[in-house]
Amino acid sequence: MKRLPLIFALLSTLLGTAFADDWDDILADARGQTVYFHAWGGSQPINDYLSWVAQRVDEEYGVELQHVKVAETGAVVSQVLSEKTAGRDQNGSVDLVWINGENFAAMKANGLLFGPFTQNLPNYALVDTANKPTTRFDFTTPVDGLEAPWGMAQLVFIYDSARLDTPPSSMADLLDFAKANPGRFTYPAPPAFHGTTFIKQALLELTDTPDALYQPVEAADFDTVTAPLWAFLDELHPLMWRRGQTFTNGAPEMQRLLADGEIAISLSFNPNDASNLIATGELPDSVRTYVHDAGSIGNTHFVAIPYNSSQTAAAQVVANFLMSPEAQARKADTNVWGDPTVLALDKLDANQRGLFDALPRGVATLAPDELGAVLREPHASWVGALEQAWLERYAR
Amino acid sequence: MPTLILAVFLIPVGVGLAGTWLPAFGWFPALGQRQFTVQPWHDLFAYPGVSKAVGLTLLSGLGSAVLALSMCLLLLIAFYPSALFRRIERLLAPILSVPHAAFAIGLGFLIAPSGWLVRLFASATGWPEYPPNWLTFQDPWGLSLLFVLTLKEAPFLLFMALASLPALKVRETLWLGRSLGYGRAKIWLTLLWPPLFSRLRLPFYAVVAYNLSVVDLALIAGPTTPPTLAVLVNRLFNDPDLLWRLPGAAGATALLLLTVLVIVTLRSLEPLVRAWRLQAVRSGRRRQTSMMLTTVAALALGIAALAYGGALVVLVLWSLAGQWRFPAALPAFSLRFWQQAPEQLGSALWLTLSTGLSAAVIALVLVIAALENEVRLRYQNVQFNTQRLLWLLYLPLLVPQIAFLFGFQVSLIWLNLDRHWWVLVWSHLVFVLPYTFLTLSGPYRAFDDRYTWLGLTLSGSRWRTWFGIKLGMLWRPIGYTLATGFAVSVAQYLPTLFIGGGRFATLTTEAVSLASGSDRRTAAAYALAQQGLPLIGFALAALAVGWRYRRHRALQQDGALSR
Question: Which of B343, B352, B336, B359 is nearest to B533 (CA)?
């Protein structure tokens, strides 16, 4: 009798290799595993959405999902790094992490990631890799199958239409707004990523040589390329909230200031943020979204699996579920979260497309044609250089 | 023996420091750094704003510690002993249980230009229509941080002072001084403060160290361009470019050096103060204490009361708010966040409770054992250096958390000890133990041993005497000590986060992660839950004491033992 489970296990392994493809193996391995998903925990709607995901993957795949609410993704990278320092190459604390940009680049460069794995995931075929190139290049770093696309982001501004009739359409316009309404605009201080993004957006709009931004920063004449940016900021800062003497620490604090009426223009990386915040009662109904005429920086956020996770099967199952039409459609609902989908709608069947068609468009969400062109992120090496230059000028 | 126990609790600090010093000098194998070099220090000092960050750290950290001490002294001169002071005394424990971050968030919303005070004014007068662009919070000079830290630490110093005052015969000294024609201020400064300060020295240094290295409060109330050194170091530790962790480790070490330097300087300034005081005594001048002093003290007390009361009310209001737009004086009320709370708080609440209670009880048992050992040694006439013990005990409070937690985390993973619940309790004990000792040692040492002799004579049993008489009479300080230890454990953020890679979710870690979001209402609800737990602890302690002494009238009076 004691041998029965062993024989059974042996049989199922044999059958698995003989008849089923890789994904079924992964599904079988995943059953009963627990995934610790380290994801920013600052937003109740997102936390609620992840509770729903946890419930669904439990029902569907027998995977237990634990959301580890982190305040900063950098701390998660630190955790994995500490484990590598200590030589723990298995059974790591983090099984899945919400990540993009520099954090991904750093983990990739230091060999802290599991994979490539996205090609294993059936739902990855539905991702709009053709029209959404940022699903393949994360801040210009090739993704190489090491992280699974989860949602789309584009820099948008949020303004209170009760206080402002026509929102600015360019950085020059924004400066005019600040002149007319001193103290009613600010942006987060770099290296907070919303702040760095604003700087990059301003640079893309203002510089005479935008092409230089897509080369490594060492190849460019940094001072010449960035001169218009500093001239703009020098003029803008004294007209900003608190005369530019103090800054916010990120978009969440900006939304609080907007809700308090301290500022009239805020920013977000989620085009549906304003609608969602109206739905949750955080922002007044009068807020709306706008983008500059030149378009705005867009990117993708992902989930990745650290190299030392021992629950990789279940982590892949969760990553796959997060890309499913069901999960993506729910996520895109502005009453739930409002995070734009990474999927290509024309790859979906009628039922799946129906899920997206049924979504109400949020009152403060721009129609796709209003959202304008998506500007690519500059080469990753610009981030550090811009941040250092900004700190040199405004934070010493 | 107590030294051995202490050593166990100091391991995390020692191991952690070493684990931070290695990368500070270039050793970080996981990133391919295997060469000892001072490059991280060069990078640190080349980082924009570091020198100003050090200045801000000194101003806000040292300034607030000195101000808190002055405030403590001022209140004592003006009001001790009096009925008013007894009332303050009773409020101290609950005030101390307020988590730093919750207090700063509440206070920030109180005094910000879009905050409650301006809202009240605006809704009454119709001006201003929109929040004015005033710099009342997070100013670039670190003044609001200094203000918050002062208000947060003054009650702690006062609490520590009150534990020592009964031994100093304040009333008698004041009578004596008065009869010689001296005013209150001079009596306090020349006769009472010196012995009191020698007992307050370590708590004061702990406050200095804490204020110099605080991260969460400085993130909320501190300057941003540049921030204080601790925040800057924290930023380096979390930078996406992993190599910044080396200068980060150097920065954490620099913060430790700065703390040591400041404490050594403070210590070496003491002879100067003593010389000045001796001169004041010799001069023999008798000046009546001016009314000014009392007025200033009353003002300070008023501001503190307003800040604490206001911050609490603001949090309660936000947790009950639906929408709350400027300039409405009150929000539209909604119970949504409390209705959701039970299912969301459940597991975090349980972990916070079990960890806090375990740490508090273990610390209590250890401290009582150490104090009993002290009594035994005293009777054996063994020379026993309590001062050295105290310094050891205080070490975890004097070393900036950020300077050793990073290294401690690596060591734990290396030993495969992280993620164990008992390691979490252990790491909390590092901080709970000193506070437990601080709270209990005064009343415990003040216990009149003649009661024990009497008990021994009557019962013949050491154990029954201790349990029935000593423990019976010390029920009140023990109850408060437990509540204090519990509150200290509840408040631990970084240690909880670092043990087990964020898998231990307590009310505090949940509250901090939600505070990084935009929704004030959820953040307020969590902050209140985090604050409510220690408060319930103190209330239960008071209730238990009341119940225990329901038939002992002489022990019912507050502080009956210590006077």
Answer: B352
- Please give the helix or strand (H or E) that residue A267 lies within, else none: strand A265-268
Among the listed residues B504, B372, B373, B374, the one whose alpha carbon sits nearest the alpha carbon of residue B426: B504
What is d(CA A249, CA B310) in angstroms, rounded to the nearest whole number? 25
Chain A residues inside the 8 Å CB shell of B119: none
* Cβ pairs bridging A and B (under 8 Å): 186
- B140 vs A280: CB contact, 8 Å cut-off? no
Peptide bond into B81 cis (omega under 30): yes
User: Which B residues in the span 302-361 are in contact with A, Cβ-Cβ below 8 Å?
Assistant: 322-323, 325-326, 334
Q: Report helix, strand or coil for B301.
A: helix
Tell me, yes or no, if B219 comes closer than 8 A to chain A by beta carbon.
yes
> Which tokens belong to B2?
């107590």
Rounded to two decimals, what is the model's pTM? Answer: 0.91
For residue B217, the chain A residues in CB contact (below 8 A) are none
Q: What does residue B193 show for φ and ψ, rounded to 5 degrees?
A: -65, -45
- Give the gap in angstroms from C-alpha B53 to the nearest C-alpha of chain A: 8
User: With contact defined as beta carbons under 8 Å apart, do A58 and B501 qualify?
Assistant: no
A268 in contact with B, Cβ within 8 Å? no
Q: Cβ contacts of residue B523 below 8 Å, gap of 6+? A: B105, B318, B511, B514, B515, B517
Rounded Cα gap, residues A50 and B69, in angstroms:
47
Q: Which residues have a Cβ under 8 Å from the Cβ of B549 and sit 6 or more positions away?
A: B475, B476, B555, B556
B-chain CB neighbours of A159 within 8 Å are none
Best residue of A37, A50, A84, A246 to probe chain B, by most B CBs closer than 10 Å? A246
Q: Give how far A292 is from chain B: nearest CA, Å.
A: 24
Q: What is the Cα–Cα distance from B137 to B109, expressed in whole angstroms?
A: 9
**Residue tagged 């607030």 (tokens):** B64
CB A375 within 8 A of CB A156: no
Residue A65, φ and ψ in degrees, nearest 5: -110, 125
* pLDDT tens digits, one per residue of B231-283: 999 999 888 888 999 999 999 999 999 999 999 999 999 999 999 988 888 88
Buried b (16+ CB within 10 A) or exposed e, B531-551: bebbbebbeebbebbeeebee
- Residue B211 near chain A (CB below 8 Å): no
Q: Is the dihedral of CA B482, B488, B489, B490 positive or negative?
A: positive
Omega into B400 within 30° of 0, i.e. cis? no
Q: Is B510 on the interface with A (CB under 8 A)?
A: yes
Nearby residues of B531 by Cβ (< 8 Å), 6 or more positions away: B97, B98, B99, B102, B315
B505 contacts chain A (CB < 8 A): yes
Nearest to B520 among A36, A254, A256 (CB): A256
B window 29-48, beta carbon within 8 A of A: 29-31, 47-48
pLDDT tens for chain A, 396 residues: list them. Answer: 444 444 444 444 444 443 346 899 999 999 999 999 999 999 999 999 999 999 999 999 999 999 999 988 988 998 898 899 888 999 999 999 999 988 999 999 999 999 999 999 999 999 999 999 999 999 889 999 999 999 999 999 999 999 999 999 999 999 999 999 999 999 999 999 999 999 999 999 999 999 999 999 999 999 999 999 999 999 999 999 999 999 999 999 999 999 999 999 999 999 999 999 999 999 999 999 999 999 999 999 999 999 999 999 999 999 999 999 999 999 999 999 999 999 999 999 999 999 999 998 889 999 888 999 999 999 888 999 999 999 999 998
A38 CB neighbours in chain B (<8 A) are 502
Contacts A281 to B, Cβ<8 Å: 322-323, 334
Burial classification of residue B28, based on how many CB atoms lie within 10 Å of its CB (0-12 exposed, 13-18 middle, 19 or more buried): buried
